[in-house]
Amino acid sequence: MLAASDPVWQAAAEHGLIDMHVDAASDYELVIRETGHRFVNMCSCSYLGLNSHPKILQGAVDALATAKSTSLSVSATRIRPNLSADLEDELGDLWRADILVGLSCSTLTSGILPLLAGGQLAEGGPRTMVFDRFAHFNLAHVKPICADESLVLTAPHNDLDYVEDVCRKHPRVAYVADGAYSMGGALPLEGLLELQDRYGLFLYIDDSHSLSAVGEHGEGYVRSRAELNPLTMVVASLVKGFGTGGAVAMLGDRGLVRLLRRHAGPVGWSQSPDNMVLGASLASAALHRTPELGELQRRLRDNVELFDRLVPTPHAGNDFAVRVVPVGEADRAIDLSVRMFERGYYCSAVFFPIVAKGEAGLRILLRADLPSKLVTDFASSVTTESMA
Amino acid sequence: MLAASDPVWQAAAEHGLIDMHVDAASDYELVIRETGHRFVNMCSCSYLGLNSHPKILQGAVDALATAKSTSLSVSATRIRPNLSADLEDELGDLWRADILVGLSCSTLTSGILPLLAGGQLAEGGPRTMVFDRFAHFNLAHVKPICADESLVLTAPHNDLDYVEDVCRKHPRVAYVADGAYSMGGALPLEGLLELQDRYGLFLYIDDSHSLSAVGEHGEGYVRSRAELNPLTMVVASLVKGFGTGGAVAMLGDRGLVRLLRRHAGPVGWSQSPDNMVLGASLASAALHRTPELGELQRRLRDNVELFDRLVPTPHAGNDFAVRVVPVGEADRAIDLSVRMFERGYYCSAVFFPIVAKGEAGLRILLRADLPSKLVTDFASSVTTESMA
């Protein structure tokens, strides 16, 4: 994989398109210190612009004044700041869930999935683990650890027939997938819930790309359509739409939170979110209770709809903010990314192993905090350059 | 493992000794909000007290003013704030290394070790991976992922003969261990460097428990005794002695930094340290250049020597701040921890799987920011209660 992908990364590097170091320039622009080149980052996952919201930055500052330290530097299994307990209570109330806060989705998932595979999180013993082929890297990375505990299979993308077939052949099955996929689209939730009803299928969903952006209180795509139950667990990053850092697991049972805090590997023995992130997160949670959330979600939807009207892409019309302009070979994607960058927009060229070989493209993430004039100008640049 | 350890965690929980939620009370004390009970945390890994240093807290605040966001919410492989690049430069200069900053040691290690096992980080192809039996959880957690790439073995603790035997039988070997162990003691560095000379043994060392606390510029135990070379890599957490958050890999080659940023799994696709932590870290790096570092290290050594004079423990006299009072069975360790807590000191009961069964104990971490009077009173309490 490294041998296949490094030459393409190197080509991107030679055009200055990776490992860029930037400062903030204006509300919408970043600037490269060495060259002075200013551009708009069209690949930020901060879908609502909350990563620069003054109240959220102030939350981080306030937390330092209260906690008087960056962190307690002790295992969160043993001692946590009240900021952490308060955040779990606040988000639990907001999202109707028992909440476990962690350093990142990777941390939560690498602690939780081996327990799920080993049969510790639901009745009946070890579970056959079925990963969607497009499940995010952080999920797929844990496959070998799960394979120490039970059988691990990879399903074709969104293939309900494949999953049902495994459910027929194996007594206990867990399906591991994204809610909203990082390269666009979503999981077939209704069909999966039917399989859960019929076969007791466990669903472990990473819904990072829709948290905050979707749902009345920003609970994300899956949680806005499904309640938690003993066979459904959702994890989501707080660094994207939510605007801060760290991650949450949403659980349907307080006993599970206790069990995971003690036994889910890095949840106990690795770092936990620092006090600044906890303070920023409490401020973001508070903002999620105000009408401002709905207003930002509406602005995001407006920008996505505007872009879709101007630039047709395979995922146009869906509920999410991720669009990919298909290009074909990796070198064409890099070339297009270079020309867009010269015009003042960073959109990332995505290529193997991020997407399949021969299916490279230009990845674009819309946001609430971009003025519609900017979206219009950007769409026009995409159209011009992708035809050049 | 879960079935064996959960009853002991539960016993600790019933005594209020785990999942404590606290506020800051004074320079030395924490307080439990619900009960008002005040205590000194004798298990903080912030060995120099830098987690509450005013300059370091100010660094976090200043970074928010500069960066105007919590983070860029984009893969660090693609775009990073100058705060991150500046931190890598600063720490590289301070510690004579090429530096890769990451979210945590777990994140760095779970990205790096599979590449090392697969033969991507040094000449000659895949390597047999030998993990010390006491290597920290975050290292051992990645064994199954490494096992997809090559043979994985577990060595008895600090057993150079075992490692040499593997080197004789296998063409390429990597040894994975802690520098200073989290339960006390260190690795046999000289012997390992001899094996490196003789057999080309790769050394991958997590030196989190000695960073900042040891070395002229806080470079840690291993780096204060050994230069980097193409067969030596050190990772260390910045949340302990350094006082902030995130982690670093110290490498002997800038090309390796580039390779890891692109291909070391979660280093690219998971979160990276937030702007507040980067700002705090730049402030801590600056402090590491001043005489204050040596002064704090001296105060830490004084406190450790004072404690060692008053309470003999197996690791008394060594260079580190970790001491364990052996107790035997887990229930006795919990009982002792309960009585110390009543006296106003939190020391954690450590038991299986943190240590071997029947070898439970009371874990104590000394710090620079404890007045010597407090250390004396604490030692006297340990003596009284451990004889009770």
From TrEMBL, chains A, B:
Give the EC number(s) under which this enzyme is classified.
2.3.1.47
**InterPro entries annotated for this entry?**
Aminotransferase_I/II_large, AON_synthase_class-II, PyrdxlP-dep_Trfase, PyrdxlP-dep_Trfase_major, PyrdxlP-dep_Trfase_small
The protein's required cofactors: pyridoxal 5'-phosphate
Q: Which reaction does it catalyse?
A: 6-carboxyhexanoyl-[ACP] + L-alanine + H(+) = (8S)-8-amino-7-oxononanoate + holo-[ACP] + CO2
A biological process (GO) of this protein is: biotin biosynthetic process
The record's Gene3D superfamilies line, in alphabetical order, gives: Aspartate Aminotransferase, domain 1, Type I PLP-dependent aspartate aminotransferase-like (Major domain)
Mind listing the UniProt keywords for this protein, alphabetically? Ligase, Pyridoxal phosphate, Transferase
Q: Which domain of life is it from?
A: Bacteria
Q: What class of enzyme is it?
A: transferase
Q: Name one GO molecular function term.
A: pyridoxal phosphate binding
Q: Describe the location of the Aminotransferase class I/classII large domain by residue ranges.
A: 157-380
Listed name of the protein = 8-amino-7-oxononanoate synthase
